[in-house]
Task: inverse folding
């Protein structure tokens, strides 16, 4: 179901259509090449020796037996890396190999390269190590207490973004202060407070991290991997390899799922270092145990939320404290803390807001970006809290949300002026579709959740090359990771601008030496930003085509139009010339036609006095979302079954409605897993379930058909009015399902995931009362 | 380790390899014979990306020693289309947006083929039940169910001709 803003509907032939993705045939025949498929004759295989304890001092590390094992070509440890090298995007606190200390179970200590995968695995077992165990901190609230041992005693020496506020075990403290929250709590008729906790969760991409590297004669390191962000790796690789960024070439091959987990270094630095040491090509494919112990999962968190509300239902104050369990190094939580701070206010026009959002070091794997970073747990907290308030004050939970919903012209949490706000429309449509008011059987419940979300910025570039047969090649540093952003969205934009079919567009993407810059497949930004760059490049091609035709036909440019792969004289359409003829003439005689597009969103204005320590201070061209879940709870086992799920998303304009719906259905199911079953379980710093059997992702049997509603409230800057689409669908399911479960059993569960055990315990406790 | 001779029949063609006897069918297909359409992920039979057909039954090729496939008919995703054209199941996965990153797709296609070989007109519930051994992290499964329905309908038409 799509609802369109009728005045803004444009006449289009390619964008807005449900076209098949360009990489489909390769993917269904097994021809598509992923990082995990990379191979070459004589290639060496890398394996990484990882810490078997969560915290300790390395007393002895002996690699001699492993190095002597036949077929082992090299082993590298911290000794091979200059001691001053620490890397990271916003805070340089991470090391390639643990030096003297290990800070989490699974931390890399050594990497080896061997003739075969089997030899590499056997040699790992020959590395000898002795530790002196140190106290383990696994609870971020413990890490915050005065006198808690410091995980990074040298934290002051680390360099990073100067905007970050850091102290003790806190690697980021972002805060928002809007209005006067203290005064508003005094004036409020009621004040409510709650505490929520959430788990660590893995992105669950099915292709483990994979890549390979070799070194060219001039020292240039060439890395091919399934990264989502080839240009984004260059800075850290440059630090680690001590090379200028231009002497590192990162090529992104097929990506078997990313969801943020393949944005940062995983295999690339290891294979690059070993390729340089051995002079050979080296490949590294992670195994699932490594993925669960040492990847870049969503952080666990503790969230305190406090709300001041008037008798008439107006929410006047919101305070929050977010404590992110960042793990042993800051990872991406320096940025995520800011995002979570923005989210605490939710999609409501609350005038007084105070948030403190902290990322805290603990002895766990360091956490990274996972689709909608910082948001699923924060929306879960604030939307559950809101339902509890509605219950206590006997407000209708739908009306309470509508009454306080953001509207056009309202201010965002840091003072931005909001435009094309469709919050209320998404609520109305979802409530109607899920039949929120219909009577329900016992132990069945319905729940609602609402959100505002961002379309990430960053630069994007594209070339469009016109081939001599009148087709084009789109050349961009952007990367298709499965979403369809490029193989549907951007390809459709290029085809639309030039009057081509989508199949006339060929793609060359994600290579730091062959394609122009892009900020990476992250933050729901690709269709929005690469789409804009490609649109500019295609318009450049069109202009050059018309100019060439004007010269060739001796007709003024203004009288010409490009349609149906021909240039026509508007006054006399029988006079025309084919696009292919112009293209061939230019390729062979007149100088080939190449269009160029470079794009960056102008920064959204906000009130800089409202946020401190924040490195993600504002929602770019925000989109609006409402989800609703219907669940059945088995009162004997506590098991929750999602029986219906409806999601309405404001996509601005659906470049490909099928693609947009696919993002929603996929994100929702991933979110259902997060809500009900997925958790990387830690005990005393050890991961108890480092495999896909005990890390429970939803199968096709576990979920209903997801129902989607596309709302199109055009954005000013996105191509054809599009907004970012891919990230947001995961941010609301935990909130909607938690509220549905509470509706079904009459108890709110304050800890994710909402497992059968927790539900059964809640039912029993209620019965005992 | 001593290698054993092993004749294998894959997608209708005969192959001969000499392998260490503990190696899995998945590794031999991918590393020795170049059938990389069959994917590798969990290596413990949980995710289904390595699903192939062995004498018309689907198996997780990561769990099967290759020597156990001796004398049996192995079909991989590379072998299900009769010609250059896509098999109706493959076409349906493209048409119905039954794939995104595509890493799980070869496994789903092999499972879907086994389902439709057994049951030419499965209900949505039967589809979901049969495909529960294959994980997909991208699509949310709507497109996969739609693809299997479309393929079933196409195959019924073809079988009637």
Result:
């Amino acid at each position: 179901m799509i609802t369109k803003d009728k005045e803004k509907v444009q006449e289009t032939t390619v964008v807005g259509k449900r076209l098949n993705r360009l990489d489909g045939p390769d993917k269904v025949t097994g021809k598509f090449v992923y990082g995990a498929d990379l191979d070459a004759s004589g290639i060496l295989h890398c394996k990484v020796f990882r810490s078997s304890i969560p915290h300790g001092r390395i007393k002895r590390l002996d690699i001699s037996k492993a190095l002597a094992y036949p077929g082992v070509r090299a082993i590298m440890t911290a000794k091979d890396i200059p001691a001053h090298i620490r890397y990271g995007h916003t805070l340089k606190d991470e090391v390639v190999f643990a030096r003297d200390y290990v800070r989490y179970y699974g931390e890399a200590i050594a990497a080896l390269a061997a003739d075969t995968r089997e030899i590499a695995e056997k040699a790992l077992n020959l590395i000898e190590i002795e530790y002196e165990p140190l106290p383990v901190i696994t609870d971020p609230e413990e890490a915050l207490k005065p006198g808690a041992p410091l995980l990074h005693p040298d934290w002051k020496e680390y360099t990073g973004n100067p905007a970050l506020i850091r102290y003790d075990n806190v690697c980021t403290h972002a805060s928002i202060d809007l209005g006067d929250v203290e005064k508003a709590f005094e004036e409020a008729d009621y004040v409510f407070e709650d505490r929520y906790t959430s788990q660590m969760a893995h992105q669950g991409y099915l292709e483990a991290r994979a890549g390979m590297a070799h070194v060219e004669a001039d020292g240039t390191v060439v890395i091919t991997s399934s990264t989502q962000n080839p240009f984004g790796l260059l800075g850290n690789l440059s630090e680690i390899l001590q090379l200028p960024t231009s002497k590192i070439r990162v090529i992104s091959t097929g990506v078997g799922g990313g969801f943020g987990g393949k944005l940062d270094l995983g295999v690339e630095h290891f294979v690059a270092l070993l390729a340089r040491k051995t002079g050979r090509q080296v490949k590294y494919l992670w195994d699932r145990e490594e993925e669960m112990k040492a990847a870049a999962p969503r952080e666990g968190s503790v969230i305190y939320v406090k709300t001041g509300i008037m008798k008439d239902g107006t929410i006047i104050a919101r305070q929050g404290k977010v404590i992110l369990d960042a793990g042993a190094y800051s990872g991406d939580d320096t940025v995520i803390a800011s995002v979570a701070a923005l989210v605490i206010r939710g999609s409501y026009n609350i005038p007084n807001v105070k948030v403190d959002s902290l990322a805290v070091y603990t002895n766990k794997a360091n956490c990274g970006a996972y689709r909608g970073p910082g948001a699923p747990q924060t929306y879960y907290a604030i939307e559950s809290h809101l339902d509890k308030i509605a219950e206590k004050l006997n407000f209708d939970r739908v009306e309470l949300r509508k009454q306080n919903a953001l509207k056009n012209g309202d201010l965002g949490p840091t003072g931005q002026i909001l435009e094309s706000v469709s919050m209320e429309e998404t609520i109305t449509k979802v409530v109607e579709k899920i039949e929120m008011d219909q009577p329900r059987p016992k132990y069945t419940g319905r729940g609602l959740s609402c959100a505002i979300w961002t379309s990430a910025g960053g630069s994007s570039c594209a070339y469009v090359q016109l081939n001599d047969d009148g087709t084009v090649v789109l050349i961009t540093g952007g990367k298709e990771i499965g979403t369809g952003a490029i193989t549907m969205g951007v390809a459709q934009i290029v085809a639309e601008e030039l009057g081509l079919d989508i199949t006339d567009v060929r793609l060359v993407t994600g290579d730091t030496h062959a394609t122009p810059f892009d900020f990476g497949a992250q933050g729901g930004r690709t269709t929005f930003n690469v789409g804009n760059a490609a649109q500019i490049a295609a318009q450049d091609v069109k202009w050059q085509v018309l100019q060439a035709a004007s010269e060739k036909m001796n007709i003024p440019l203004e009288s010409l139009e490009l349609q149906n792969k021909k240039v026509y004289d508007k006054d006399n359409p029988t006079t025309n010339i084919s696009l292919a003829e112009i293209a061939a003439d230019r390729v062979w005689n007149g100088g080939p036609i190449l269009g160029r597009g470079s794009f960056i969103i102008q920064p959204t204005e906000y009130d800089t006095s409202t946020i401190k320590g924040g490195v993600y201070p504002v929602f770019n061209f925000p989109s609006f979302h409402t989800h609703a879940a219907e669940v059945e709870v088995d009162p004997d086992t506590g098991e929750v079954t999602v029986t219906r799920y409806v999601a309405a998303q404001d996509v601005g304009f659906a470049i490909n409605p099928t693609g947009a719906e696919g993002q929603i259905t996929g994100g929702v199911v991933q979110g259902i897993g997060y809500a009900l079953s997925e958790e990387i379980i830690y005990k005393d710093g050890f991961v108890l379930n480092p495999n896909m059997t005990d890390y429970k992702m939803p199968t096709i049997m576990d979920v209903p058909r997801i129902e989607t509603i596309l709302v199109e409230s055009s954005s000013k800057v996105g191509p054809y009015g599009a907004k970012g689409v891919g990230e947001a669908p995961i941010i609301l399911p935990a909130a909607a399902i938690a509220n549905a479960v509470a509706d079904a059993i009459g108890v709110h569960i304050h800890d994710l995931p909402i497992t059968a055990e927790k539900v059964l315990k809640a039912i029993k406790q209620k019965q005992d009362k | 380790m001593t290698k054993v001779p092993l004749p294998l029949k894959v997608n209708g063609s005969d192959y001969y390899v000499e392998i260490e006897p503990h190696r899995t069918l998945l590794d031999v297909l991918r590393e020795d014979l170049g059938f990389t359409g069959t994917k590798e992920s969990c290596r413990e039979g949980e995710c289904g990306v390595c699903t192939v057909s062995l004498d018309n039954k689907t198996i997780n090729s990561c769990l099967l020693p290759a020597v156990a496939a001796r004398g049996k008919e192995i079909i991989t995703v590379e072998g299900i289309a009769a010609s250059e054209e896509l098999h109706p199941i493959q076409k349906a996965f493209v048409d119905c947006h039954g794939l995104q990153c595509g890493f799980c797709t070869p496994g789903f296609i092999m499972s879907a083929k086994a389902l439709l070989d057994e049951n030419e007109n499965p209900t949505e519930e039967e589809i979901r039940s049969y495909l529960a051994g294959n994980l997909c992290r991208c699509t949310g499964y709507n497109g996969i169910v739609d693809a299997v329905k479309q393929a079933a309908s196409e195959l019924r038409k073809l079988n009637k001709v």
User: Anything to note?
Assistant: Chain B has two domains: 4-79, 88-160. Chain B has a mean pLDDT of 97.
